[in-house]
User: Which sequence fits this backbone?
């Protein structure tokens, strides 16, 4: 929703604030996304959290094939940093066929996947924004485009283990003079989101951020977009719609950036004069 739906380039142009889109695959989970944010955030930076609703339902381990594959094959250092119980759970979710494929690649590496119109790292600009997601490039068959987020529609956010990961990140951010704000992820409008169950789920998200003293900017209504605005899922906007959504967000973001940031902590004092990269 973030990678496809927010234009960092446009934000930088309008607000004169260096901006990078760090949106990535939701299957990697909130804990890992915040790990990535820690690697790049510096004193004086602002981090805007825009997590899809279903990602709140997972903690450090996500029962998702994308997550398991990525941790085991490409993030060995992060994997080893996890609690032993989490490491064991991820290892047990690794299938025999995936292990065999990995061992085979040690001796005869697979060829890189073919370049696709949209899903390829080369289709990002220098701001991290998704390219080639214009409406004219919409796939002919998009079964996931017309759907709804079950976590939001069916009130499945009674347990939100990811909030603990966000809390830890917010504490880290304050200790390092990094401002944290949040907003609503882009999502296809659906009558199911107007039910009392959905409203309860949405309020849990708001309450979680409020308890962490993380301001939410914008409104849920601004995040809702009509079905023609989406590319191939009910989270992925077309490039044209992403510009519209970013325009809506810029005014709220500009106001948030005017507010005083978190007080400088001792750990961040030495970074106060660090030059932005």
Assistant:
């Amino acid at each position: 929703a973030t990678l496809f739906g927010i234009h960092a380039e446009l934000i930088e142009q309008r607000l004169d604030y260096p901006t990078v889109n760090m949106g990535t695959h939701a299957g990697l989970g909130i804990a890992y996304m915040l790990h990535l944010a820690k690697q790049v955030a510096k004193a004086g930076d602002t981090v805007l959290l825009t997590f899809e609703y279903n990602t709140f339902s997972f903690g450090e381990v996500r029962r998702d094939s994308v997550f398991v594959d990525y941790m085991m094959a490409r993030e060995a250092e992060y994997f080893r940093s996890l609690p032993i119980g989490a490491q064991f759970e991820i290892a047990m979710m690794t299938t025999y066929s995936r292990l065999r494929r990995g061992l085979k690649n040690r001796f005869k590496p697979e060829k890189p996947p073919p370049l696709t119109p949209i899903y390829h790292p080369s289709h990002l600009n220098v701001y991290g924004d998704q390219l080639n997601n214009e409406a004219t490039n919409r796939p002919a068959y998009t079964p996931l485009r017309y759907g709804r987020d079950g976590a939001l529609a069916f009130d499945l956010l009674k347990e939100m283990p990811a909030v603990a990961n966000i809390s830890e990140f917010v504490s880290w951010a304050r200790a390092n003079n990094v401002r944290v704000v949040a907003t609503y992820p882009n999502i296809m409008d659906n009558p199911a989101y107007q039910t009392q169950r959905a409203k309860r789920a949405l309020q849990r998200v708001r309450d979680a951020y409020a308890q962490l003293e993380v301001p939410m900017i914008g409104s849920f209504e601004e995040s809702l977009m009509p079905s023609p605005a989406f590319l191939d899922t009910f989270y992925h906007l077309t490039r044209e719609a992403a510009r519209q959504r970013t325009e809506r967000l810029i005014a709220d973001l500009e106001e948030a950036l005017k507010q005083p940031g978190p007080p400088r902590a001792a750990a961040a004092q030495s970074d106060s004069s660090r030059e932005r990269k």
Observations:
- The mean pLDDT is 89.
- The radius of gyration is 19 Å.
- The chain is about 45% helix and 5% strand.
